[in-house]
Write a structure and sequence with these properties.
By secondary structure, this protein is of the alpha+beta class. It has three helices and seven strands; from the N terminus they run E-E-E-E-H-E-H-E-E-H. The strands form three sheets. A three-stranded antiparallel sheet has the order 5-7-6, with no helix packed on it. Strands 1-2 form a two-stranded antiparallel sheet. Strands 3-4 form a two-stranded antiparallel ribbon.
């Protein structure tokens, strides 16, 4: 949310203040319908009460792709826990400032702005991808499975360009990229252009 203040020396209503609410359109909570009964574990993790309590939002396209991925995961590894979802995007998208200070650490969670990336628990915590299959699952996510991985052809997925982050640390996880980079650019442009148009219209109305 941004506030624009306009001053006009000859206007009776000066100064005028308008709020601009910039948000990524169309984000959905992956724990709400129609995704609530999905294959992933409930609830997710990573919530920070009072700061980032709503952290599981994706675009419909990304959530649908995640649903297909998790169904195939359970079909391949039926004895493994259901995937535990960590941070995706905030309810409105935008900067996901983990420490809540809005200072420093500018690249932290940089890909969690637009609702097309999500983290999946892959450590020693309950519900994580087990260590025994972690490397195999990661190759599967990269569409680089080996013959000895025994992945049935019907369960092969397009690569989600995953990252395996914090390896060996308590916060180890898979970072999944579920979006289309061309679509990402269009969303960014739409948000910026929309905010600028609203700002210009607001100032123009104030000066009349």
């Amino acid at each position: 949310m941004h506030t624009i203040k306009a001053n006009c020396a000859t206007c009776a209503n000066s100064p005028a203040v308008h709020e601009i609410r910039a948000r990524v359109p169309g984000l959905v909570n992956v724990f709400a319908l129609p995704f609530r009964d999905a294959q992933w574990a409930y609830p997710g993790v990573g919530q920070v009460p009072g700061r980032h309590s709503e952290n599981h939002y994706l675009t419909v396209a990304a959530a649908t792709r995640l649903l297909d991925l998790t169904r195939k995961f359970k079909a391949i590894w039926p004895d493994a826990p259901r995937l535990t979802l960590n941070d995706a995007s905030l309810e409105w998208g935008g900067k996901f400032d983990i420490p809540g200070t809005w200072e420093g650490n500018p690249n932290a969670h940089a890909e969690h702005r637009l609702g097309d990336s999500i983290d999946v628990r892959a450590n020693d915590a309950p519900g994580a991808v087990p260590l025994a299959i972690r490397a195999v699952v990661f190759r599967w996510l990269r569409k680089q499975s080996r013959v000895e991985d025994n992945i049935p052809p019907e369960f092969v997925i397009d690569s989600v360009n995953p990252l395996r982050e914090a390896i060996g640390h308590p916060n180890e996880h898979f970072h999944l990229r579920l979006g289309d980079w061309h679509e990402k650019f269009k969303v960014v442009r739409m948000v910026i252009v929309g905010a600028l148009r609203f700002a210009v219209a607001s100032v123009a109305a104030t000066e009349q």
